Amino acid sequence: MTPVSSSHLAQALRHPRYLRTAWPWRALAYLLTTAPLAAVLSIGPLVVVAPLFAAVGAVQRHDRPVPLALAAFLAVCGLFVVALAPLLSAPVAAFERYRLGLVDGRPVAGQPWRGVAARYVTAGAWREAAYLFWLGGVVPVVYWIFAVLVMLDVLLIVSPFVAGTGGEVVLVWATVDSPAQAVPHAIVGLLLAPVLWYAAGALAAAQAVVARWLLRGTLDGAALREVTRSRARLVDAYEAERRRIERDLHDGAQPRLTSLSLQIGLARLDVPDDSPAAGPLAVAHEQAMGLMTLLRQIVRGIRPQSLTDLGLAGAVRELADEAPVPVEVHAELPRPLPEAAETTAYFVVSEVLGNIARHAQATHAQVRLTDTGAGLVVEISDDGRGGADPARGSGLTGLADRVAAADGRLLLASPPGGPTLVRVELPWSA
C-alpha cells in the first residue's frame, strides 16, 4: 500500500490517497473493537433509560403520575450507575488509551491511580466517567445507524444476484423482481462504497477525538504547584547562568580583548602604511573588535546562530545532518515563529537526538514540526529499543522543565522494545 506520512487518522483522511493506505483498515479495526465494549457498557444506561421511557409513555397514554415505586427504582438505579462509573472508568480508560494507538499514534497521558476516594474528587476521574457514559450511550446509537447504512449498501450491491430467485426485493426506494432491474441499484451501491469507507474513517476519527479530549490526564493542585516550581527553577537557573557568563565576560574576557585590541592598534601605529604587515594588522584589529561585539550578542541572546540564519526548520535539518543516526525531518511551518518557541524547540530536538544517538540503539529517527495555528508541536520518534524513563536520568527531566518554563508540555511514549515518541506542545503564549 502507498504510505501516507500521518500520525493520526484525522490527518490521514485529508490525504488524496487515503483509500490506498492502511488507514481505512485501521479505522475499521478501531470500530469493530469498539462495538463489543460499547455493547457491554450500554447495559448500564439501558437499566435506567428503558424503564424511564416506559414510564413516560404510560403517563402520556393514561394521564397518570409515575408510580412511587418506579420512581424510587429509577432513582436508586441512576445513583448506583453514577456511583459505579468513576471506578469502572479507570480500567476502561486505560484500555481505551492503549487502543487509541490504532488510529492515533500520539501518546495520551493518563490519570494516575490515587485510591478509591480520589476517583470521586478529581476532575480527570469524572472526565473518564463521562467517556464511559458516552461510550455506552451515544456510541451504540451512532453505530447502529452506520450499520444500517452499510447493510443497505450491501443489499444494493448484491440485489442482481437475489432478484428473481424468490419474489420481489425491496431496495430502500424501489422494488425489483429481476436482475436487470437491480443492476442500476447495484451500480449506485458500488459508487457509495468508497463514501462509506470515508464515513467509517470519519466516524473512527471523531470517536478518537472525543476519547483524546476526555481521557487526557489533568493536573491536580500538587502537580500544578510542581510545574510552577519547575518553571521558577529553570528561569532562575537560566538568569543566574546568564549573569555569571556576563560577569566572566566583563571581568575576564573583555579586558583581555580590550588589551589585545589596544596592542594591535599600537602596533598599527608603528608599522608604515606601505608595510606588508599593515594589512594583516588592520584585519586582526577589526576581528578583535568584532569578537567583543559577537560575544556580547551570544551571551545576551543565548540563541544558536543557526536559528537566526536558517530558521527553526533549517536549524533542525542541520542538527539532523550532524546526527550519527539517519534522521528524517518534516516541517509544516508556513509562517515565522516566536523566538521563545523556536529556541525551546531547537534545544528539545538537539537533546532528544543526542539521547537517541547515545542510548536508543536506533537505526532511524524522525522529527516533525507542525504549526497548529495555536502553537508549535514537535514530535521526535525513533525505532530504537525504547524504555526511556525520566526517573533514571536528568536529561528528560531537564527537557520537561525547559518546556514547562515556556508554558508548554512534554509527552513521552517509550514502551520496552520501542518505538519511542517524544511530543512537545508549545503554545504561542510562550
TrEMBL record:
The record's section on Pfam families has: HATPase_c (PF02518), HisKA_3 (PF07730), Sensor (PF13796)
Q: What class of enzyme is it?
A: transferase
Swiss-Prot/TrEMBL keywords: ATP-binding, Kinase, Membrane, Nucleotide-binding, Phosphoprotein, Transferase, Transmembrane, Transmembrane helix, Two-component regulatory system
Report which superkingdom the organism of origin falls in: Bacteria
Q: What is its EC number?
A: 2.7.13.3
Ranges for domain Signal transduction histidine kinase subgroup 3 dimerisation and phosphoacceptor: 241-307
Q: Which ranges does the record mark as transmembrane?
A: 27-56, 68-88, 129-147, 154-175, 195-215
This enzyme catalyses:
ATP + protein L-histidine = ADP + protein N-phospho-L-histidine
Recorded hits in CDD domains, A to Z, give: HATPase_UhpB-NarQ-NarX-like
The reply to whether Transferase figures as a keyword in the UniProt entry is: yes
Q: Which InterPro entries match?
A: HATPase_C_sf, HATPase_dom, Put_sensor_dom, Sensor_HK_TwoCompSys, Sig_transdc_His_kin_sub3_dim/P
For this UniProt entry, what's an example GO CC term? membrane
**Residue limits of the Putative sensor domain?**
69-215
**Molecular function terms, GO-annotated:** ATP binding; phosphorelay sensor kinase activity; protein dimerization activity
Identify the residues that the record assigns to the Histidine kinase/HSP90-like ATPase domain, covering every copy.
343-427
Q: What is this protein called?
A: histidine kinase
Species, as recorded: Micromonospora phaseoli
